[in-house]
Please model this.
Amino acid sequence: MLGLAAVFAVVMASPFLLMVLNAFKSGEDYSSRGPIAVPTTFSFQAFTDYLSIVDFPVALGNSILISTVVAFAGVALSLISAYPIGVGRVRGSGLILAALLLSTMLPHEALIYPLFYGAQATHTFNTVWSVIIVFVVLQGAFGTYLLASVLGTVPKELIEAAEIDGAGRWQILWRILLPVLMPTLSVLLVFFFIWTWNEFYIPVVLLSDQSSQTVPIALSTLRGQHSIDITVLNAGSLLSLLPTLVFFLIFQRTLNRGVTAGAVK
Model:
């Protein structure tokens, strides 16, 4: 069983390993020996070429800003929106949750026209705030649905006991429900950051200016404007992947605690 798991792990990691190998190859080495061969000499020329084509620091800063703001604002919006729905203070909460779930299933292609004209009307087009506003709402819809479902499992007696003790609605949320929801909120924070970081379609439409582009958009500029160099493309993909990989490793323990919360009493 352990050997089978090791083989499965190697198969799953093989695309990443190939990307690393080809990122450190020269163009001549890739052309003569192919994508699977180990580099004869490890070269950083592909990274140098990528950084000369793309303004990576600007794209990296934009991606970090957008993903961080969306992650925290999306979690906050989800919590505030899910609280009255989850504790049963809103009529038709079932229909509201169904509508939120349906909204998360809509393809981005169906939303792009109203989002485009909305960004123009609000003068946020070509600014990172257009993407931030859109993804806070989109991620907040999913987060509201999830948190409202979790809040629906909280015993009513717990909330009633707090009300009898004189706690207001905000005190119930911050002092009683927030500690219970903290593992779920941590998972949402990690997921919102990674999901937003990897988004491409909506940002590429709303952020056409180079000064506001994100990392995935910067990577896409290697196609079309410039001849495609596979080693440069792999180097750019590796640089684009590293921030999310570091973020995931930092919050891996938080993610594990959040996923397993409630599994063992």
User: Anything to note?
Assistant: The chain has one domain: 54-260.
